[in-house]
From TrEMBL:
One of its GO terms (cellular component) is cytosol. InterPro entries: AraC-type_N (IPR032687), Homeodomain-like_sf (IPR009057), HTH_AraC (IPR018060). Keywords: DNA-binding, Transcription, Transcription regulation. This is Transcriptional regulator, AraC family. One of its GO terms (molecular function) is transcription cis-regulatory region binding. It comes from the Bacteria. Gene3D superfamilies: Homeodomain-like. Residues 243-341 form the HTH araC/xylS-type domain.
Length: 345
């Protein structure tokens, strides 16, 4: 059995939600998802919790392996079609709370590391066409040829623009570095146009003015998202403000947004009003946030594939030393001691 990397090793993990719909899609194509996952070092149980973190290389390989084994050239695009905005979890909240489509995409790029730290984005102008380009950048090894994963990322950008603009916008052009892996008909069916293959970047080009227009009904979308992901269900009349904040923070902390203004915005209240209501119930926002972080760090430490440095980053700490001090305060043990104890248990 290969040795597991040490906590100090560089190790990148992504949310299991990245494979949402994977098993069903493989089955519809006559394949065995367990066998494909197993060939990549994963098991079906790994996909049960969308918030679990999995090795990024294993997730990427599973998608490429499925396309190869099943002979489905557009597997990545089909998988993307099964993944809605809710697949992004709280990242979707950030995107849908923006005032414009462009700002939503930029905020998504800013926080995408909480969903998939191997990805980042950059924008630039194409002077010859007058279009604004968004390039998706991957931190996977440069020698890795994974066109299915690349197409998922680019297709998902197209889908987000379509959803956020309620169908009013679409990219002027889609760019891919690699050669086609599917037919022209498949690309047109999934993307609405034929990408420019052999391009200098992976991403999209869009009218710079059009996607700066106000996002249609973004407040309504945000409220629906808050009810679904932050509160779980509409709170009853007797639900205390403390319980509402506790429920919201349990999710906001996962996005590094566990501050008072974010919690107040999620609950449609002014920060000072929310603070007064908490005080009236004998609660303090800082203590509720601390409790949310304490609960989440215990869940993260139970996942051996996550390095301590990555856990510190997910919690919004400046470095691993801050995580160590927090664990000593919460549990009276260091993160390594806690992790060792959970493995023995």
């Amino acid at each position: 059995m290969p040795a597991k990397p040490a906590d100090s090793a560089v190790m990148t993990s992504v949310r299991a939600a990245s494979l949402a719909g994977f098993e069903d899609l493989v089955r519809t194509q006559g394949g065995d998802p367990a066998a494909i996952l197993g060939a990549c070092g994963l098991v079906p149980d790994d996909l049960a919790d969308p918030e679990r973190y999995l090795p990024s290389h294993a997730v990427a390989l599973a998608i490429e392996e499925a396309a190869c084994v099943l002979g489905v050239q557009d597997f990545g695009l089909r998988l993307c079609a099964r993944q809605g905005v809710e697949t992004l979890g709280l990242l979707g909240l950030v995107i849908q709370s923006a005032p414009t489509v462009r700002e939503g995409m930029m905020q998504g790029g800013k926080y995408v590391h909480f969903h998939n730290p191997t990805l980042s984005y950059r924008t630039f102008m194409a002077p010859d066409e007058g279009l604004e380009c968004v390039e998706v950048l991957s931190r996977l090894p440069p020698h890795a040829h994974m066109p299915q994963g690349t197409e998922i990322c680019v297709a998902y950008m197209c889908r987000l623009i379509h959803v956020l603009s309620e169908g009013a916008l679409r990219p002027s052009a889609i760019h891919l570095r690699h050669a086609p892996v599917g037919s022209s008909a498949q690309y047109r069916r999934h993307l609405g146009q034929l990408p420019r293959f052999g391009s200098s970047f992976d991403g999209i080009a869009i009218d710079p003015l059009a996607w700066r227009q106000p996002m249609p009904r973004h407040n309504r979308l945000l409220q629906q998202f808050v009810e679904r992901f932050l509160l779980g269900a509409a709170p009853g009349r007797n639900t205390s403000v403390t319980d509402q904040v506790r429920s919201a923070l349990a999710n906001l902390v996962r996005m590094g947004m566990a501050d008072l203004p974010s919690a107040a915005r999620a609950l449609s209240q002014h920060p000072r009003t929310l603070q007064r209501r908490l005080q009236a119930e004998g609660a303090a926002f800082e203590e509720l946030r601390d409790s949310a972080r304490r609960t989440w760090v215990a869940q993260l430490l139970a996942q051996p594939e996550l390095s301590l440095g990555h856990i510190a980053q997910l919690l919004g700490y400046s470095d691993q030393a801050v995580l160590t001090r927090a664990c000593q305060r919460w549990f009276g043990q260091s993160p390594r001691q806690l992790r060792h104890g959970s493995r023995e248990g």
